[in-house]
Each structure stands twice: as structure tokens, then as C-alpha cells.
């Protein structure tokens, strides 16, 4: 990664704006998983140790430009206060009077957190005025440590970088890029990927980018049924993207030509197709009803090429789990993204858990991303058995596809001395004063 990091700049006595990813799950105002907060601690603690005045900002949820109490970052400020054992000052707005007062009063080593940046409708529009206002809270240093939001070109993830002297990566961002980019550019062989999730369309770009890098790809989850149908198999009422069957066939041909082994499920845990709802439901209600049905529905294991009509695939079967485990044993690098079953239902999360255990039992370089995959690892307390657990879902996928991430591309290259000239600083100040 040819970008400056937080260790390449002098931060002593300076206000440093740090974009974090504190998009944590909440229930009744309480944080249920603080992983994304603890992942940001190395950068925060490094800055404090160097005498910086640390200003944190992040989004939480999708408030759509409105102030909504349930998406306030106040619980995150309280959590950080406990974790850092220091009073984390909380600004009740993003760049308004509270933010200005809180940040201007910081002493060396102090930490402040701004309110949810998405409470400002300009954030997701990558509005330049908001970017300038955020930059003005700092002393010209911006640190992007929000890998999970690096694929978004928003004011706090991309725009602000154009209005500071130095825009650098945080330690978490650096670690994510080193593991993911390093794996793609120079993996230890043999290298195998495990891909799951619901849709082939979400992973086509990833598969195509991996074909000249991996020795094999294991495919599970809902996306597997599109591949199985592409081979002419009976998949019953399993999830299938009919318009992607041709692309699935083309991928399998490319893989065969490149000598890349694609392994599909041999057996599948199935459940009956859920009945049509009696009333019109929105997307969220449909998903809730679907999960509720599956929790009490009967299930059985069948061969993946003979799924009966009226039944749908919900997880890889035990034979497939053993096959996947055998495929992993001699690999030096393993990349896993996406669940292999419907993990919201306990009985259909077994395949994902078995694969997590199989990877953990190897001596491979193991990299995992995707919420359900990570959740399975945590449930089994296997975090220490993986080389790297990525904090980014969409960002990981786009990087694996070979796409440029806006939140990374905007950062200062190592050979660059600064991002803006004194003249531009004056122009920015004049613009803010208007």
C-alpha cells in the first residue's frame, strides 16, 4: 500500500480528525457487539500516545439525513470512555456549535466523538461544504480508519481528504489493505477461496478476479443453487437467479480452462417452501416471516442434484462439510467470504460453523469477511485461530473484485508532501466564513 499511514505524520499537539466505523449493533440502546469499536483502539491509542487531540467521527445505521435518537453515537462515546479509561467528550452535532466547542477545548491526548455524520443530509451526497466543515475542526490532519465504509464516497470518507494537509490511513485500514491486497497480489500457494451468501450477482466480480489467483473455489450458500441449476441439476424451489445461469456456466468453463477446481455442494439440507403470505408485506416483514417459518419447518438432507419440488436448500449437508474440510487441509492460504446456509436459523447455520472449525484447524493464512461468517467464528470462540477477520463487508468484496476504494484512493501517497497549499487553505477559510 503506497499510502501514508498515521505513523508517517507528526501529530503532537494537533487536532486530528479520525473517521472510524462505529456502525455497531444496538438493542434497547445497548451495544451488543463492540468489535468495530475495539478494532479502532490501536489507532486511537497510538494518536493519544503521540500527544494528538483526537476527534472521532462515524456513521451509525441509516437515518437518511435526519436526527433520530435510536441512531445516536452517545452509547459509543460511553463505550469508548470505558475502553480507553478516559472521558470521551461527546458533541451533540456533527459540525455545529457543540462540535466546535468540544473540539476547541481538547488538550493533548484528549478524545472527542462527533454525533452521527449521517444525521447531516450532506454526508451521503459527498457535499463539499460538509467536507470543509469537518476539515476545519482539525489542524489539517485526517485519518481514515473506517475500512468498512471505504467503498463509499461520502463527505467524511472521501471529500474531507481534499481539504487537509495530510490524509492518511489508520492502523486498522493499513492492516485490512495489507492482508486483502497482499493475499490477492502475492498469496502463498496453494490458495483456495470459499464463497457463500445468497446471490451469485454479489460475487461474480469476485470470482472472475480470483480465477487467475486461486487453485480452487468452494461455493455454498444460496448462490450455489444457481451454479447447480447451471449444471442441469434439479434444485426444487431453492433460491436461483435465472438471469445469472449463463454467467455461472461461463465461470465454470473459464475455471476449467484455467485449471481452477470449483467445488459445489454434494448434499443439501432442505426445508419445505414457505407458503405465500395472505397479505402484502414489505421487504423487512417478508424476511421476518420467512425466518419464523423456517425455525419450525421440518428439514432433511438430500443430494444436491435431486432437490424435490416444493423444497428449498437451506444449508450445505454433512457430506459437503467433510468434502470442504478435506479440500482445505493442504492449503497455505484460505479466503472465506459469506455464509454457507441461512444462519439466522440455528439449524441451518451448522454448515457455516463446520467450515469455520475446519479452517481454524489448519495452519493456513486464513482471512475471513462477511457478517455471518464472522458471527460463526465468534460464536465458536475461534477468533484467535484466524489470521485476519475483516471489519468490512461491502468494502472487502469491492477490494476482492479489484475495484478502487474511494476512501483509500483519496489518501496521501507516500511521495506526496501535502494535500493542499497555503493558498487553498485561505480559500477554504474564506468559503467557510461566507
Q: How does the SSE layout of this entry go?
A:
Layout lengths: L14 E5 L6 E2 L2 E2 L3 H15 L3 E5 L16 H11 L4 E2 L6 H8 L6 E3 L14 H9 L4 E4 L21 E4 L1 H15 L5 E5 L8 H7 L5 E4 L3 H8 L3 E2 L9 H14 L2 E3 L3 E6 L10 H14 L3 E4 L2 E2 L3 E6 L1 H11 L4 E5 L12 H11 L4 E5 L1 H9 L8 E2 L4 H7 L5 H4 L12 H12 L1
Features:
Rossmann fold; six-stranded parallel β-sheet
Short description:
The chain is α/β, with parallel strands linked by helices and 434 residues long. It folds into 2 domains: 6-171 and 405-433, Rossmann fold, CATH 3.40.50.1260; 187-400, Phosphoglycerate kinase, N-terminal domain (Rossmann fold).
What does this structure look like?
The radius of gyration is 24 Å and the shape is globular. The mean pLDDT is 93. It has 15 helices and 19 strands. The protein starts with 14 loop residues before the first strand and ends with a helix. By secondary structure, the chain is α/β, with parallel strands linked by helices. The chain has a six-stranded parallel β-sheet with strand order 5-6-4-1-7-8, with helices on both faces. Helix 4 crosses helix 15 (422-433), helix 7 crosses helix 8 and helix 10 (318-328) packs parallel to helix 11 (350-360). The protein has two domains: 6-171 and 405-433, Rossmann fold; 187-400, Phosphoglycerate kinase, N-terminal domain (Rossmann fold).
Amino acid at each position: 500500500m503506497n499510502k501514508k499511514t498515521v505513523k508517517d505524520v507528526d501529530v503532537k499537539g494537533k487536532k486530528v480528525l479520525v473517521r472510524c466505523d462505529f456502525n455497531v449493533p444496538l438493542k434497547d440502546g445497548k451495544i451488543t457487539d463492540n468489535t468495530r469499536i475495539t478494532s479502532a483502539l490501536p489507532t486511537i491509542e497510538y494518536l493519544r500516545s503521540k500527544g494528538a487531540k483526537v476527534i472521532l467521527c462515524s456513521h451509525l445505521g441509516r437515518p437518511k439525513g435526519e436526527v433520530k435518537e435510536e441512531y445516536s453515537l452517545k452509547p459509543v462515546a460511553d463505550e469508548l470512555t470505558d475502553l480507553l479509561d478516559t472521558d470521551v467528550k461527546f458533541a451533540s452535532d456533527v459540525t455545529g456549535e457543540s462540535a466546535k466547542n468540544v473540539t476547541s477545548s481538547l488538550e493533548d491526548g484528549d478524545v472527542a466523538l462527533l454525533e452521527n455524520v449521517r444525521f447531516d443530509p450532506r454526508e451521503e451526497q459527498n457535499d463539499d461544504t460538509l467536507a470543509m466543515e469537518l476539515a476545519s475542526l482539525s489542524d489539517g490532519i485526517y485519518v481514515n480508519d473506517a475500512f468498512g465504509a471505504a467503498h463509499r464516497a461520502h463527505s467524511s470518507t472521501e471529500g474531507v481528504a481534499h481539504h487537509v494537509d495530510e490524509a492518511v490511513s489508520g492502523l486498522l485500514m493499513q492492516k485490512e489493505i495489507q492482508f486483502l491486497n497482499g493475499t490477492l497480489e502475492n498469496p502463498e500457494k496453494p490458495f483456495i477461496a470459499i464463497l457463500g451468501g445468497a446471490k451469485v450477482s454479489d460475487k461474480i466480480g469476485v470470482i472472475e478476479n480470483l480465477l487467475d489467483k486461486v487453485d480452487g473455489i468452494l461455493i455454498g450458500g444460496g448462490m450455489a443453487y444457481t451454479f447447480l441449476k447451471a449444471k442441469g441439476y434439479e434444485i426444487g424451489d431453492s433460491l436461483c437467479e435465472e438471469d445469472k445461469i449463463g454467467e455461472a456456466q461461463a465461470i465454470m468453463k473459464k475455471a476449467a480452462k484455467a485449471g481452477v477446481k470449483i467445488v459445489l455442494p454434494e448434499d443439501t439440507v432442505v426445508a419445505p417452501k414457505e407458503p405465500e403470505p395472505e397479505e402484502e408485506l414489505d421487504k423487512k416483514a417478508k424476511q421476518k416471516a420467512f425466518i419464523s417459518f423456517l425455525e419450525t419447518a421440518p428439514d432433511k438432507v438430500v443430494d444436491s442434484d435431486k432437490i424435490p419440488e416444493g423444497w428449498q436448500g437451506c444449508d450445505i449437508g454433512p457430506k459437503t462439510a467433510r468434502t470442504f474440510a478435506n479440500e482445505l487441509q493442504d492449503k497455505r492460504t484460505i479466503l472465506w467470504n459469506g455464509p454457507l446456509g441461512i444462519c439466522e436459523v440455528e439449524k441451518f447455520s451448522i454448515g457455516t460453523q463446520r467450515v469455520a472449525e475446519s479452517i481454524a484447524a489448519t495452519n493456513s493464512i486464513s482471512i475471513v469477511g462477511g457478517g455471518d461468517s464472522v458471527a460463526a467464528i465468534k460464536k465458536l470462540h475461534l477468533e484467535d485461530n484466524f489470521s485476519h477477520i475483516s471489519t468490512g463487508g461491502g468494502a472487502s468484496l469491492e477490494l476482492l473484485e479489484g475495484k478502487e476504494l474511494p476512501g483509500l484512493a483519496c489518501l496521501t501517497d507516500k511521495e506526496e508532501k501535502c494535500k493542499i497549499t497555503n493558498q487553498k487553505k485561505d480559500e477554504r477559510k474564506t468559503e467557510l466564513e461566507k
